Amino acid sequence: MSEWNSMNREIKKNQLRRQIVQTSVSNDESSEEIIKKARTKVRKKRLRIFLVVFGLLAAGGIGAFQYFSLYHYTNYGIVWSKELNEGSYEGYLDFGSNVLKYSRDGASYLDAQGKEVWIQSYEMKSPRAVVSGDYAAIADLQGNSIYIFDKAGKTGVATTVLPIVKATVSSHGVVAAILEDSAANYIYFFKQDGSALDVKIKALLGGDSGYPVDISLSPDGTQLMGAYAYLKNGTLNGRVAFHNFAEIGKSVPDRLVGGFDEPYDAALVAQVHFLDDTYSCAFADNSVSFYSTRNALSPELVKQIPIKEEIKSVFYSKKYVGLIVDNPEGENPYRLEVYRPDGKQVFSRVFQYQYTNADIDGEHVFLYNEDSCRVYNMSGRLKFSGTFDFPVTKIRNGRFPNTLIVTGPKNMKEIRLQIGGQYQ
Q1: Which of 165, 232, 304, 357 has the smallest number of Cβ neighbours within 10 A?
Q2: Which residues of 140-173 are buried (b: 16+ CB within 10 A; e: fewer)?
Q3: Which segments within 96-221 are labelled E, that is strand?
Q4: Where are the domains of the chain?
Q5: What pLDDT shows up at residue 292?
Q6: pLDDT for the residue 25
Q7: pLDDT of the residue at 422
């Protein structure tokens, strides 16, 4: 009997233990469910907050786009102004995010607030500056010196025996120059320190290659594009030629990988330019042509656009090519056309503004003269039109979307555009 009672007590103890364990498990499951629901609630709340913030940002972005891109500004305020040493001023060029100022007696590199980063003195009778990426070169046309710079200052000086006709620079500091003598023209190459490379091209007007009119180096310095004039049946014709100085070009005689005569029958090519390492363009008196050197040994004419009217101006950046031509129809005497490097048109716009300079900086086209300016965005909308009470020689984008850097012979100013009109 005592054993039976003892067994009953053990059975009851086991039953009690199971009940306690089941209750504990149930309580744990309830706790996990509560925590899970709480986490889900927090996630939903965060998602709602994110969607609200995203909506506000999107609305703000649309508003900012309209404010900075669609409005027509006619007023401005001066943010800051700095007096500059005029010297024998010749011109300004965009150099990186800053400006290269050059004259007959020296050059200076100015930051976005007009402060001189460096100054270099020299003496030239006819200086002409070119820029590519991190390097600039200033050549004394019909003289014998080329100064080469990076953003820290002078890297070298190239000295020539023959007079300099044209010069171009790559973004790695390699310089190519057309040199002239009485019997022929030559294209010589120089390193960034000014020392000569063991490469040259000889050209004759009556020879197979023709007479070099203009040249352009690709940014990486491995390709040279040239505009040539040559005689054909007693008539002067244009030609575009490509040379490759990379390892792959050694397999081709004279490193000449492509020549284009047929597109310029009875036309002359005045200017050529590499936009990047793949795309380049050539400006003739009756057309603009877009080339690709994606295949290094076989350059391709991607597109040629005939121009019936007289070409007044050509200008370009890495991303765009701009033309201004006569407009024979209607009351507007000029037509502005902008293209991408592959020849696709971005926009076309007629106008009657009397400009003297045209530039592209970022997503804006600048037309300006000595005391006024027009700015178009890449939708062809007139963003700003206004006059200034100070002389103007160069205009570019400022530090913010609605500011411009306006430079003259004696000063540099940053102006903030102000709404004075409405949608265009």
Answers
A1: 232
A2: beebebbbbbbbeebbbbbebebebbbbbbbbbb
A3: 98-103, 106-110, 116-121, 127-132, 135-140, 145-150, 153-159, 164-169, 175-180, 185-190, 196-203, 211-217
A4: 75-423
A5: 98
A6: 44
A7: 41
